[in-house]
Design goal:
Elements: H1 6-21, E1 24-32, E2 37-45, H2 53-70, E3 77-82, H3 93-98, E4 103-112, E5 115-126, E6 129-134, E7 141-145, E8 149-154, H4 158-187
Parallel strand pairs: 2-3
Antiparallel strand pairs: 1-2, 4-5, 4-8, 5-6, 6-7
Length: 188
């Protein structure tokens, strides 16, 4: 689910090695139509799931250079590199494990029991299936094959906002401690 189209896949193949070298993970790639095509790339640090504006800018510069050479899109486009945000897309089995306990919406590529959309609390991953405790249905957990999921994303709740704030504060504290230890090493 990181990609939807062949063009998305070609861009992901170009972006992943660059992101890897920068300690980043590509969350999703989408080429969107409009007056001017937009190539949207969501990325995050592997270490903590965060990303800083400078890292987005650096990734954008590196991707622009390789895309200029490889030319995966023949017409003009705008490259947009950013964070997946709080209501992030869930694009890998690992995402469903990481965000277990949070409210999500899942859309399938087929009908299951007369519906394609499911909403509820993520309840884990087992044998390639995503478990979700369905909203409004007592004692009802759906086990959905990951391969059937076409789109999934977290839904913003107070708990998610609180967890996001704690992660941001922890990342800032780690960066400050890293800067302090680097400054201390320079003093010796």
């Amino acid at each position: 689910m990181k990609t939807k189209t062949n063009i998305d896949e070609r861009i992901l193949a170009l972006a992943e090695p660059i992101a890897e070298d920068m300690g980043l993970n590509i969350v999703r790639v989408r080429v969107m139509a409009g007056k001017r095509r937009t190539v949207q790339i969501m990325a995050e640090r592997k270490s903590d799931g965060q990303i800083h504006v400078d890292q987005c800018a650096n990734l954008s510069r590196e991707l622009s250079a390789i895309m200029e050479v490889e030319d995966p899109i023949s017409e003009a486009y705008m490259l947009e590199v950013g964070s997946p945000g709080l209501d992030r897309p869930l694009t890998s089995l690992e995402d469903f494990t990481t965000y277990e306990g949070y409210l999500a919406r899942i859309e399938l590529d087929r009908l299951v029991e007369g519906r394609k959309r499911f909403r509820g609390i993520l309840a884990g991953v087992e044998d390639g299936h995503v478990d979700i405790n369905l909203d409004g249905e007592t004692d009802s957990t759906a086990s959905i094959p990951f391969d059937w999921i076409s789109e999934a994303k977290l839904l913003i709740t107070d708990e998610l906002i609180e967890a996001g704030q704690k992660a941001k504060e922890a990342a800032e504290k780690a960066a400050a401690e890293n800067n302090n230890s680097t400054a201390d090493e320079g003093d010796t």
